[in-house]
């Protein structure tokens, strides 16, 4: 199945940059490609549909909502948005999303047919044929669903109650012969119940019913008090603006302001309305009028089911043959979790690369620090915490043991604000010193520095990561974490924590590249150095691995390097506004994107040809927000063994010819295919580390 979007047919002006929002939709199209890929296990394909849908929800809540605000402010926004004016961009987004939604529905239908071949049936309310199913469904509805059901009868004269953001609703239309006006109602699908209900097996086959259809099966009992000759149910969903509007009341704490703002999302303006495309026009018109949905909101005709993000939790039914085989996270060579982390780091830097390596090394390091009587201080930045966070528990444990624990916690990590606030309050209650960011900046760096009394001096240890200290995402996000006792790096880290405390003083750093103060200019200098090599008759070479690249100034710098003859290889997972391979502008730039079992998350920068490489890991993408509006840390790799390891794992990714898509001016998400032996980089990387242990 071909899931590629032909951007040329959408009329995109691709002369110099790809618009950020359009590029993001192209990334999500690559996620959807995974759900169409016959080589992906069947249930995993459904879960990719869920990831695609969840991504799209967040896109509308954030990016689409931002563009809509520009339109409502009466601004065109062409300069800020790139390529398109704001109103034009809204139209293009809607057209692309409608196309992608249609594609996703076709993919789901295809997967459901293939599930039948595996003896798994996802049945609708009119496909209940076995008595044991009928009995189970009625009992389940009476005991589990009915008590949780919220049903709202709609009256033209009454204001519609608040429709919850991203919740799915069944719009009920009841018609009686001879009556001109139908009776309308809304049924909220209970979000606290699993969306997929597993029915009893029959003749060795598995049966699943989506909760929506289970409710449809029981509509007669819900609306028995009404007189009607015909009843129908169609699903709708609203997405609301997720921007946080913080008030300026100086008498409130930052947590109070943020908590109020997060709650305010419930009443935010709608930015997308998705409806079952088979709903009749009169019912749709009634709903749009009631909900205040306007022409510049994105109205998306969809299928029978919405909130397809729930497919991320599609039941496995014990069918391990329809899932990815589980890979046990590996230990780091010569580093046992029974060893003292301080002793090992003092001997030599080491690198953790999750999920190929176990995340347990981070937890072990913090737990050891919490108990070690020689440890005096622990300072750490936190961006996203797991709902059950062993990191937070270790820090609280350290505070209880008398350590001076300082946590710079970013409460504004989008969609994780509530979890972070909960842990912030808990840590504060236990004596942890909290710092709530820097005015005007988000703190997105992922660093830790620990001071330990060794004889008459304090010695520093620490770690620097490309990803969050989150035990759950560490199972599915690929990220590097450098453990080090390097005096120079850790001295700079201590300066950074001083900046968090007294952010009116801007420090100078000798080794770390810190955004927003020095990063962009430092990256320019590194690029210029490669340009100079070419001009002097040598070879210039840049290799980048990032999540996103959208800063036009730095893109122009890369264009300049390409035009000078510098070879640039880029692995960009998500948004990229740079257009590679254009003669006279970017012919020396090659770019791929890898979407596979794990989410590619590390940021790696490699400057220089073989044998002369300068290697960095970073928390920062090359986006304006990261370079100008966030505190980010880019760390040089000085250990030669680790430098070699990062270059080798980068090269494995670059040589992928199974899950790599070639990003080009065509913007068609074409898979890279060549005459080399098949190389699937995520599987090959696991084998790389497995072989290291032998």
From TrEMBL:
It catalyses: [phosphate](n) + ATP = [phosphate](n+1) + ADP. Mg(2+) binds at residues 384, 414. One of its GO terms (biological process) is polyphosphate biosynthetic process. GO terms for cellular component: polyphosphate kinase complex. An intermediate of this reaction is the autophosphorylated ppk in which a phosphate is covalently linked to a histidine residue through a N-P bond. Its cofactor is Mg(2+). Gene3D superfamilies: Endonuclease Chain A (3.30.870.10), Polyphosphate kinase middle domain (3.30.1840.10), Polyphosphate kinase N-terminal domain (1.20.58.310). Keywords: ATP-binding, Kinase, Magnesium, Metal-binding, Nucleotide-binding, Phosphoprotein, Transferase. ATP binds at residues 55, 477, 573, 601. It comes from the Bacteria. The active site is at 444 (phosphohistidine intermediate). Residues 340-503, 512-682 form the Polyphosphate kinase C-terminal domain. CDD domains: PLDc_EcPPK1_C1_like, PLDc_EcPPK1_C2_like. Residues 17-122 form the Polyphosphate kinase N-terminal domain. GO terms for molecular function: ATP binding; metal ion binding; polyphosphate kinase activity. Pfam families: PP_kinase, PP_kinase_C, PP_kinase_C_1, PP_kinase_N. Its EC number is 2.7.4.1. Residues 133-314 form the Polyphosphate kinase middle domain. Belongs to the polyphosphate kinase 1 (PPK1) family. Catalyzes the reversible transfer of the terminal phosphate of ATP to form a long-chain polyphosphate (polyP). PANTHER family: POLYPHOSPHATE KINASE (PTHR30218). This is Polyphosphate kinase. It comes from Leeuwenhoekiella polynyae. The gene is ppk.
